[in-house]
């Protein structure tokens, strides 16, 4: 018999969840214009909107909040955070920022000249925005497999070295200030990069005197996939793997809201002293003193502990295991999802789920709305609504992928919660023909997915026809 595993923690404090009736959820969904971003959190049962800043802190972290040193300069709490980053990630120089994008801003301003190119294994919205605002062109150098949701590849976040070499040959190494390497790749569905690939990228870059800067946001999750999937890594600790990963880079930007197990915070780290000194100047301008950088002393205490807790082998095995617990049950039930299951989220393929809807009927938006209506589970659209419009033609950008993202917060929900999500999705799949498309009633000019409003396209205005109502 296969032995089951459970959460490697017990619960000391509980937060009561809203258990709305079908009618109440329907009302809440209508008020939110069928956009899950606009639903009040008090009306959500299981919130899978994002894993960013939604982590549950440990008793050690809560306890440490009280010891935070709120001195304006030279805070003891900063010393602890700096030491944790040095010990666990191995970089020499560290600067605190209010969150990941604060670090991205400073790095981009200091490294990028107008007309430069910044290659990356796909992009993250804020990372790319900072690169472009400083005059750089982003170039995607991820392997082709990453763009196909049906292909199983153990390291779908890998860099295609030939693509990187071609860019170097074309524009010249002096036009490439750094390679931005994300571990794992959020946009590809939380897909990892192999140790071998990280090493090869670093060696190629060193040959051409190009820096490698990691987007280290989910680096611990990446380390777990290396341990599990890469030859010779199985018996090493996550901490050892992580430190070796970081050694194939010159620095990183970090969002503490993910793999540092806190609700707010971030940092910029590097080994180049000159870059550190220049970065420190900008931290003062944009973030705060270099001994707090936009965080309270108590936040730094919590993050220093979170950084160490995250590399606990049991914690990270459970974290990835929980995402898989959700994803594998959906696969077993024949639900179309992006494969393989990544580190932080499961993505439903809404085109395959609702084949009777055209892309202009917003299938992923409709599916996310239907899931909330059915069970109070909040997910996020990642499809045509998120892709926005082409600035020149004014037409919808039509992405290949029309996805609903189920993102799992760290240490917040039990596997029973995941089972509730599975049951709701399986029921919806059985009645998928009864789910209608949406029309957009209000469209904001930028980042429309946050505030857009919709209504059902059915004759009677119901998203799921009443006779097929599930609960
Ligand atoms: C969240 C995130 C960021 C930005 O971090 P913030 O703390 O939200 O500013 C950068 N890159 C990736 C991959 C992220 O997921």
Automatic annotation (TrEMBL):
It is an enzyme of class 4 (lyase). The modification N6-(pyridoxal phosphate)lysine is found at residue 258. Keywords: Lyase, Pyridoxal phosphate. Its cofactor is pyridoxal 5'-phosphate. It catalyses: L-tyrosine + H2O = phenol + pyruvate + NH4(+). It comes from the Bacteria. Residues 47-422 form the Aromatic amino acid beta-eliminating lyase/threonine aldolase domain. Pfam families: Beta_elim_lyase. InterPro entries: ArAA_b-elim_lyase/Thr_aldolase (IPR001597), Beta-eliminating_lyase (IPR011166), PyrdxlP-dep_Trfase (IPR015424), PyrdxlP-dep_Trfase_major (IPR015421), PyrdxlP-dep_Trfase_small (IPR015422), Tryptophanase_CS (IPR018176), Tyr_phenol_ly (IPR013441). Its EC number is 4.1.99.2. GO terms for molecular function: tyrosine phenol-lyase activity. Homotetramer. Belongs to the beta-eliminating lyase family. This is Tyrosine phenol-lyase.
């Amino acid at each position: 018999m296969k032995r089951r595993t459970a959460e490697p923690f017990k619960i000391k404090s509980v937060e009561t969840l809203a258990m709305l009736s079908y009618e109440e959820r329907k009302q809440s969904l209508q008020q939110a214009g069928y956009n899950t971003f606009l639903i009040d959190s008090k009306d959500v049962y299981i919130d899978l909107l994002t894993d960013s800043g939604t982590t549950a802190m440990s008793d050690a972290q809560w306890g440490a909040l009280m010891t935070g040193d709120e001195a304006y300069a030279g805070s003891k709490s900063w010393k602890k955070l700096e030491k944790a980053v040095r010990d666990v990630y191995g970089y020499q120089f560290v600067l605190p920022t209010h969150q990941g994008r604060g670090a991205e801003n400073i790095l981009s301003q200091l490294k990028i000249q107008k007309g430069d190119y910044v290659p990356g294994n796909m992009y993250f919205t804020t990372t790319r925005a900072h690169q472009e605002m400083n005059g750089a062109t982003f170039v995607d150098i991820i392997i082709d497999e990453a763009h196909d949701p049906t292909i199983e590849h153990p390291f779908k976040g890998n860099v295609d070295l030939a693509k990187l070499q071609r860019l170097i040959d074309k524009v010249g190494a002096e036009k490439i200030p750094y390679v931005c390497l994300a571990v794992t790749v959020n946009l590809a569905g939380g897909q990892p990069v192999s140790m071998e690939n990280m090493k090869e990228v670093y060696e190629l870059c060193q040959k051409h005197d190009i820096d490698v800067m990691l987007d280290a946001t989910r680096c611990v999750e990446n380390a777990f996939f290396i341990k599990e999937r890469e030859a010779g890594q199985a018996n090493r600790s996550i901490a050892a793997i992580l430190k070796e990963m970081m050694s194939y880079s010159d620095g990183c930007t970090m969002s503490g809201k993910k793999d540092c197990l806190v609700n707010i915070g971030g940092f910029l780290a590097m080994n180049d002293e000159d870059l550190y000194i220049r970065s420190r100047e900008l931290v003062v301008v944009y973030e705060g003193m270099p001994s707090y950088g936009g965080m309270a002393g108590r936040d730094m205490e919590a993050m220093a502990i979170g950084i160490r807790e995250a590399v606990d082998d049991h914690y990270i095995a459970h974290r990835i295991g929980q995402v898989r617990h959700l994803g594998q049950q959906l696969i077993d039930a024949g639900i179309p999802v992006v494969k393989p299951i990544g580190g932080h989220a499961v993505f439903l393929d809404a085109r395959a789920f609702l084949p009777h809807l055209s892309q202009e009927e917003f299938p992923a938006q409709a599916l996310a709305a239907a899931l909330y209506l059915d069970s109070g589970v909040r997910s996020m659209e990642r499809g045509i609504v998120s892709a926005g419009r082409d600035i020149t033609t004014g037409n919808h950008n039509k992405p290949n992928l029309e996805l609903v993202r189920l993102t799992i917060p760290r240490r917040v929900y039990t596997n029973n919660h995941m089972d509730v999500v599975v049951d709701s999705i399986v029921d919806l799949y059985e009645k998928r023909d009864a789910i209608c498309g949406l029309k957009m009633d209000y469209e904001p000019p930028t980042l429309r997915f946050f505030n857009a409003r919709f209504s059902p396209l059915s004759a009677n205005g119901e998203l799921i026809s009443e006779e097929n109502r599930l609960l």
